Records
---
Amino acid sequence: MIALALISPAQLRAIHSLKGKARLDDALYRDMLRPFGVVSSKELTTGQAAQLIDRLQAASPRQQHPKAVAMTGRYGAKIRALWISGWNLGVVRDRTDEAACAFVERQTGVQRTAWLTDPAKGRAAIEALKAWLAREAGIEWPSGHDAEVSDHKRAVLIAQWGRLVDLGIVHPGATRVGGLLTIVETQLGCELASLSDPRITSADLDKVSTVLGRRIRKARPAR
């Protein structure tokens, strides 16, 4: 028999906070716990805790207008960065964190990245997202454990440039790297030896990706 993971500390804090916001007395709170067959939130599984949090959010008068989902937790930042890359590649239709969390939930059954604590599930969500972007946008992700964040961002830029070539937005004769380097040089205002020039920062790569993303979406709205 497989043991289910118990409620995480982050979920427990969220429940206590939402209980206060919803102004529930102990009797009403016990009524909300009863369907789960427990008398204390500490006895909930992660899945049950997620359901209770959703119910508490619905009961809170301050949650009538949903707010953006925070992409926190061990894997949140990386998943969000990949999701935005998909947006800039014209593959992702909805740029919001809510949409990214919905993707994660489909892959792992976990609704929020803050609750994504299982390393196997975290890796599964990331690899599924990378595989989707590689399949739809032709990204060739760098291999090896020594690949840096900038290496992945350069891979996204090269894939973006390839999509612009395929869409006829840039000259068909332009090489993927050569033409892209010119764009990067224009953004930085200096001549560069290559896309790996140490003067190109991670923020610079993000800026160029955003610019190319606008051109891609203008020519071909995300599917």
---
Amino acid sequence: MGALPEAEIRAFLDKHLERESDALAMQAMAMYQAGQAEQAIATLNQAWQADPQNPRLPMQLLEILVAQGQLDDARKVIDALPAEQRETDTVQALQARLTFVDLAEGAPDIASLQTTLEQNPDDSEARYQLAIQLLVNGQLEPALDALLELMQRDRTYKDDAARKTLIQAFEMLGNQGEVVSHYRAKMASLLY
């Protein structure tokens, strides 16, 4: 309502107008799609250093770093982002994914965990580790099912870790979509 100051208008337009650094980003994405991930990362870093105000550059860089498994570098990019950009759904989803990758480190593989649960279905630690491993490996629905089952079997496990992890999984999925709605309803029915 009313006129906006020039600085606000410029800031709004900056987010939507193409910049010189966007041309470099397009080249980087073409490199990445051609299988040249390292060159794409270097080009995006160069573009971001030349134009640190372009909000699209670190997001593209993050996508490639996470896809390539360069998680420490991805964390450094996230830490370098301005606070308002760290709060975006995309960055929150990436942070949740990084958390799951960290939790999965050193855990047994999926087959070993499934064998453990066949022998002892009440092993809450094994069920939790299985859910994390499934999440990291992109098996979303089995992972969410495992977390719901853990919630139902052992609500007190690690201070309600199953519920908290479900919420993080929903964040990783962007807090929207059919899978999130379905499992959020299941979680609510268990809670209430």
